[in-house]
Amino acid sequence: KVAIKGIERELICPSCKELFTHPLILPCQHNVCHKCVKEILFAFEDSLGDGGSESSSPSSPRIKLSSSSMDRIDRISRSGIKRNSLTPRSTLFPCPGCQRDIDLGERGINGLFRNFTLETIVERYRQAARAAVAIMCDFCKPPPQESTKSCLDCSASYCNECFKIHHPWGTMKAQHEYIGPTTNFRPKILMCPEHEMERVNMYCEICRRPVCHLCKLGGSHANHRVTTMNTAYKTLKEKLSKDIEYLISKESQVKSHITQLDLLLKETECNSERAKEEASQKFEKLFHVLEEKKSVALLAIEASKNLRMEKLQAQTEEYQGLLENNGLVGYAQEVLKETDPSCFVQTAKQLHVRIQKATESLKSFRPAADTTFEDFVVDIAKQEEILDVLSFHSSGIQIPEINEEQSRMYNKALISWECPGKTESADIYVLGYHKLNREEESVTWQEVEVCSKSKVISGLDDDSSYAFRVRGYKGSICSPWSQEVVLRTPPAPVLSFLFDDKCGYNSEHLLLNPRRTSVESRAGFPLLLGSERMQAGCYTTLDYIIGDTGITKGKHFWAFRVEAYSYLVKVGVVSSNKIQKLFHNTHDTTSPRYEQDSGHDSGSEDAFFDSSQPFTLVTLGMKKFFIPTTPAAPKDPASRILPLPSRLGICLDSDKGRVGFYDAGCMKCLYECEVDCSGIMYPAFALMGGAAVHLEEAVTAKYEEYNDDI
Fold it and tell me: For a FRET experiment, which of 103, 423, 492, 520 has its CA 20 to 30 Å from that of 658?
């Protein structure tokens, strides 16, 4: 048997770091004190602020919708999107044990079970720790006597006399169950927290919690696999007993591992000191190099200063001699006093040359030396950059490379990378990113640790460029930063919608996948029958389909992919008051330019045709993007044909009445025009012949699922 005093580590709440008090079992199977759950929920609510909807219910201090529902509701409230239903609300709780956000359901704390078994063990530990402290009788008159037993039905402790008084023979109380003195009272029957009048008699194997028969019949566990409580009790107890027996049988192996770990601790301490000494030596060597460079630079500056000072001092003395009664001028004045012509001429000739030079230098004054030391400015920009990334580099860890093809920007940023070569990969990665802003002088990188080779980043600004880089870590060794990759976010919030399979959907010509995210035009027998009209003209019917989500206000963006084999696809937007014309327009044609009855072979009818359409669409097909014919469009037809991007995007600004068509890979606008947004606007698509369109899937974070132990 394991001594009670040796299991204290298992009896500590992960939140308050004290012994459990009324512990609750979370869906992740961790235990937290009841009071700690409330405190964490309130703190979680305060930290998120206006991040979600709130409720003042004491059982659920913070009510928050799931992230996907929050995005959808946020668009409804701010952008006027029409939706039919909302996701039910739930309570999120940040578990301090596993550091995950746990869904507590609509009932919040009221839906959690108290862990009475853990409470009993904690009480036994408390009694072992305070054996000298007696539990007093709850009914004695002062001074109270030491209790001898506790009644589980009354939840009170009694001395012998008081127990006889309150539990007389011949009454119902005489049948109460009693145990030794305790302060931990647990109910004799465990009741369902959702159906308070029902006792739990089954065990849900999916949720791993006890349930009652009402939970199974019509509650949240209706479709879950359940077993009887006795079966679950026997199964879990047998499994736990076997595991405990196995651990006890391996006691010698555990002790051996402990001895090995002790040696590893000492070895780690010794190796860390050696690594510190080596690192100190490297930095000392670097300091020595810097000191030498510093001394050489200072000596060079000092020598240059002395030389310049000498030149300037000599020039100053020369100009001092030009003053009256000083130097050259004073000497010349004395020479002028000579009266003997021969002697004067002998001396004055050389003096006159010197006076002329002084006069010329006075007219064009120029300092003998430069006072600035611009040539001695030390450029350390590259060295600072190198020192900034100074770390424990290892040749065994390759520099990761960000995969631009697998990375994408949509509602969130999905950044993927890979490690080239066959060398050992890193244990963890650090992804750094920052917004490109010309106004900011200094760049502040945000960094996140990642255990996989991809990461979803949320909360990025719309219509902005971000730089990303990544490096790998293996222990204390890290690789250099990867080459920076710049990606641009969509110009507006992402609109989430599916293809509408009811409004005007032609199931004979179009094929939708079950998720309604892809549509394909089947160029089959019905199209051949309709092609008989091509003898009298080239009118060919287009099959239209719209999105199931409408827009009434705001700016929105959505992306999609057109298959390369598609012959003809039109994409754009349509107003709700013109949808009937969309599906019943008799002029659904590619172009009447070559119609035999038109009598024209020019582009004049194209402009009229585009302006008469009840919607705004652009044409795609044969791996090309065709810019519509407008007065502002290039006159050369070849310049209006662009290569078809792998992903296309549409940005609708219903407030300004403009729609833009983008290359969704680089978020570059290919074409923009005005559009009438008087009604509810819907995404619209048209297909002819063999063609297919796939809606861009939203970027979602992947969470680990809990494994079922039974």
Answer: 520
